[in-house]
Amino acid sequence: MATFRLIVLLGCLVFRPGAFAQPVQMHVTLEEIARKARERAEKPFQPPKSDLPREVRELNYDSYREIHFRHDKALWAKEALPFRLEFFHPGYLYTTPVQIHEFTATHAQPIRFVDDFFDYGKNKFAKKIPADAGYAGFKLSFPLSGPESWEEVASFLGASYFRMLGQNQRYGASARGLAIDSGEPDVKEEFPTFTDWWIGKPEKGLNTLRLYAILDSPSCAGAYEFLFRPGATTVADVSVVLFMRTNAAKTLGLAPLTSMFWFGENSENKPNDYRAEVHDSDGLLIRSGEEEFIWCPLNPSAALRHQTYPMTACRGFGLLQRDRAFSHYEDMFNLYQKVPSVWVEPRGNWSDGEVHLVELPTKSEAEDNIVAFWNPKEKPTPMQPYRFAYTLYWSERHDEKFAPSKVLQTRIGAIPGAPEKRQVMIDFAWKENIAETPVAKTDCTESATVTDVQVFKNELSRSWRVIFNLAAKKGNSESARLSCTLTAANKPISETWSYLWNP
């Protein structure tokens, strides 16, 4: 009887030898985690202390990849619950300790570091890591394709980065908790870190999981709540309470997304590679409060590019992978046609601000070089709770639910006999209810000129093809911002194509 009462009191937390510290009575809510975050923000920032052996801290890429979590040790694996939880070993690039807790309706318990959770391969340092060392992060599995098909659906690893997957998807773009001064040439970017996690024990029959985290950095501390729902499109509702230590941040990136773009169909100087395209996302889509849809094809160059799109309200933005044809990538090992598009949908009023697009130069596909985020016009007051919420969608074609005639592709090439000029070709999706050929409205900043604009109906790809000539003005080497929109009866019927061109 005494044992039964203990299990009830602890809300059905399960003890595993060595894995859990003593449970404590705790009602885990966003407000409770926000209280802890505020206490953190009231003190000067202290980076989490790492007490790892030297050989763990100095692991290289290959040695770190030798370490694997033993799937049979996954939390909840033997309890017939809808999720399984595994952990990332600290080391290599991931030496900042992350403290992880499991919670139920009444109690929470810290999850200790356990060597036996891991297969170390050729590494010889097992049994040297303290039980309170923490983990580098964690990942979640879920039977997306059937009762026995356990598949990884989310990964939280490195600073405040995380990735999620829907059905039949492969990892590509990432999200972050917060981006501070990203893309500012005269200020060093600050990377906040998720230092503490509380992961709700899943309930039988419910395909949702609730997670809480504390984010910390020199500028701020914050509380995050994630309500996670995996599926064909995986969805995460995110709610945040942020406390700024200072008001020194030049840009405060809410709901930041990060991706990779090396080259694509619109790249003018392609590397010597057998593949025609290499990218995890091919464009940024923005949905303004006025229901204008702006499509910005990605196009990093040899120098940092930082574009802003001011608006009075934002109904959504996302880094999308629209090109889904394997034949456009021809990569059997990196399935770029299967990576998710990631869409951010604000909840509540985000007021005035800007969508930012940062493109960093890159010479390979090894590093993420694209960042997109919302920068509010009115910045948070130090130590006053700043609340915002949004929903993340990890999907294949989420934009088809609301976007008008969308941009299918962008191509740019030199004009024979006129190397200083370019011919630009844009394909817009064909809408059945448009009987007549639409008109292309183009615009260009003063550093360049657009001429000879034509629109054709492309029966082969069921699209409207816009073709025009582009040239930099004599002696001008500044970037030119271009735009193009299809109209019929003087009304827009397509997205606004927005492009930053470097002569």
Describe the structure.
The protein has two domains: 5-401, Beta-galactosidase, Chain A, domain 5 (Distorted Sandwich), CATH 2.70.98.10; 407-501, Immunoglobulins (Immunoglobulin-like, Sandwich), CATH 2.60.40.10. The chain has 503 residues and is mostly beta strands. It is globular and about 75 Å long. It has a 16-stranded mixed β-sheet that branches. Strand 27 and strand 28 form a beta hairpin. The protein has four helices and 34 strands. Residues 1-11 have low confidence and may be disordered. It has helices at 2-9, 30-41, 54-57, 61-65; strands at residues 24-25, 68-69, 84-88, 99-103, 107-110, 118-119, 137-143, 150-157, 161-164, 174-176, 179-180, 193-200, 209-216, 220-229, 234-244, 252-259, 261-263, 278-279, 283-288, 293-297, 305-311, 314-320, 341-347, 353-359, 370-376, 386-395, 407-415, 418-429, 439-444, 448-458, 463-472, 480-488, 491-492, 496-501. The N and C termini lie far apart (79 Å).
